[in-house]
User: Fold Cation/H+ exchanger transmembrane domain-containing protein from Gossypium raimondii.
Amino acid sequence: MAVRQLFYGNFFFLGCESQIWFSVKKKQFFRNFITIMLFGAVGTLISWSIISFGVIKFFKEMDIGSLEIGDFLAIGAIFAATDSVCTLQVLNQDETPLLYSLVFGEGVVNDATSVVLFNAIQSFDLTNTNHRIALEFIGSFLYLFLASTLLGVAVGLVSAYIIKTLYFGRHSTDREFALMMLMAYLSYIMAELFYLSGILTVFFCGIVMSHYTWHNVTESSRITSKHAFATLSFVCETFIFLHVGMDALDIETWKFVNDRPGTSIIVSSVLLALVMAGRAAFVFPLSFLSNLAHKSANEKISFRQQIIIWWAGLMRGAVSMALAYNQFTRAGHTQLRWNAIMITSTITVVLFSSVVFGLMTKPLIRFLLPHSKVTSAPSGSSSPKSITVPFLGSTQDSFEDSPKGVQQPSSIRALLTTPTHTVHYYWRKFDNAFMRPVFGGRGFVPFVPGSPAERSEHKLPQLQ
Assistant:
């Protein structure tokens, strides 16, 4: 069991860190931050509630075993974790930036929320629930979520400050890349050490490091890190899928249910139906609420895009497998029939959703979005498009203080009507005045003689 958790955790760290650094455009991500958090956090809680309520209602009537209330809630957390990798492989970030940003951001936040929720469930004895236990459970969930986020941000800032101020590895690409890699991995290790969410920690650590740390190294280190992380991302995703396939051939687990195959099929069907219902219960209502807060048609989520977002979250993958083995195995072995039924049902749902839903994703996107050219992989998923283009892009992720034509709010009411541009404007002023002079970043990299990147960036005008 420990080996399986270590395998999934370490390879998910590498894949997640690489996707954060070289796939997502952070300006687009933070422009839709509220919607992403609605889908990833609030939506996950809604999906978890529906799945948990459904399994309590149906599984008790089916009498599949002596499952307790904690097991039912854990099942909800297990199947609330999405795996949108297949959808991201056919979405193009440049052609459908809004859709790509929502699917990617919601997928990462969803995984983190599911893991945090699962850990909170395991840390409480829910056999005798009352108001005090419920409040403690909510407090534990919020603590894990906020502490994991702050830890990732803190480690990212520390890495940026170290690389900016220490010059012992300034001209060594190997040392700079190794230091960035180890500092990112340190955030994951510290999260696991303090029983926090490693996924959420490394997610925010990657965002901070790509905004500050990555701009503090030399040009050769940036080129190396681009290709190295892109390669690691591809290899790690491949190994995760291979390991999921190997878990599907767990003969010991299948032996427990070979005399009752009908029960396993029914359980898998019920879980698939609950996953689809739980997904629909928050995607369409939350999309409606998100559209109310946006006036521009380009920022609103169309009904066809909502269908794709709903479809993207139906696939289950490595996170669900790891959580299921964590909940229903002891010392790496499944010794009870109902635990074996849950393991085999999870495997069935993962394989069915990945194969069937995954194969239908590309035709569905072509049918719903005929004007968007669907490619086999998004730009930057396998390797960077160009090593000479700035990391954040030249247009979409530029560092202008404020968009042209945006009037600054003069009241709280005006602030609420244009929250995206206003928050970005004040964050950019704070970032330029306080954060970048201390932690580095584009336009604030110290000059080191003999470094081509340092000389080129030293010539950039300081942003005021």
About this structure: Residues 131-165 form the longest helix (35 residues). The chain is about 70% helix and 0% strand. The domain at 1-368 is CATH 1.20.1530.20 (Na+/H+ antiporter like fold). The chain has a mean pLDDT of 76.
